[in-house]
Every structure is written in C-alpha cells, then in structure tokens.
Amino acid sequence: MTGFLIVIHTIVSLLLIAVVLMQASQGGGLSGTFGGNAASSVLGGQNAGNVLSKITTWLATIFLTLAVVISVLTGPSDTGPTSLVKQAAENRPAVPPTDVIDPDGEGTLDLGGEE
Fold it and tell me: How many CA atoms lie less than 13 Å away from 89 in the CB half-sphere?
C-alpha cells in the first residue's frame, strides 16, 4: 500500500513540476522556451493560464495530501519499543547467576606481596 502511494506521489510531483514550468510568469517563463506557445494552443488560447493555475492547485493539493497520508502510514507504531537499545535489552539472553563469595570466609586477594 505504501509503495503504491509513493509511486503515485512521485508521478504527481513530476506532473506538478511540468505544469509549473509550463506556466508563463512575468518574464515569459519556460513555456515560451519549450515549443513557443504550445501550452496555450493546446489548452485553449487565452484561458490557458487559468487552466494551468487550476491544474497546479489540484496537483499541489493532491501532493500535500499524499505526503501527509504516507507519513501517517509509515510513522512509528505504538506496538513495541521505539528505541533500538530498548529492543536489544528486551531480546538479550538470560545470564545465569554467578557464584557469590562468602563474606565470612577469606575474602582477600593474595597479590603475592609482603605479608
């Protein structure tokens, strides 16, 4: 499911980039660079700017909605530890208990020095 949404998100982002580049800005934009007035002739002449801005608005809305949905779906879940350290601590093997030194017995360590 998430992979499908990421593919759709990528396609929408590429379409959004293409539509934004086709729009004519104050200085003419890239729409005049690539094929002259192809965008305005295909989209209907004088209303081409209006159509392109509506398409941009819809694509931007879809882009942001998909980004939020993908982030919610892939976010951290509450079903387990969120830290790798906590996860490793829970999965560590049990260590057998060690022998306890009798405190009443001789508990000194002989290092071989003077007595």
Answer: 7
Identity of the residue numbered 87: Q
Looking at mean pLDDT, say which of 9-23, 75-89, 92-106 comes out highest: 9-23
Give first-to-last CA distance, the chain, whole Å.
76
Q: What is the mean pLDDT of residues 90-102?
A: 75
Tell me how many degrees the CA angle 37-43-51 measures, rounded to the nearest 5: 110
Tell me the pTM.
Answer: 0.52
Phi, psi for 59 (deg, rounded to 5):
-65, -40
CB of 55 within 8 A of CB of 4? Answer: no
Contact between residue 84 and residue 54 where contact means Cβ atoms under 8 Å apart = no
